[in-house]
Write a structure and sequence with these properties.
With 82 residues, the chain is mainly α. The protein has one helix and no strands. It is rod-shaped and about 125 Å long.
Amino acid sequence: MGRLQLHSDRIREQLDSGWHVQIDRIFEERFGEVSARLQEDFDRAVNAKAAEHAEMQMNMARVAAQRHLTEQLNIQPPFEER
């Protein structure tokens, strides 16, 4: 009877530990997938915001350059008297 009980206990331990290992593996896989999706979404959002910021900066630089050029063209060089 003692041998049978030991064998039964070993089987129960293996089943219990196998179940926990499988659950741990499943959680790791799922959280890995969720983490990867979140990282992709974050990267996409950062890239979109960076592109938006760069476009805004280029527009501001273009306006400043146009203003500067207009000011330069509006300045009349003094006429030399002869």
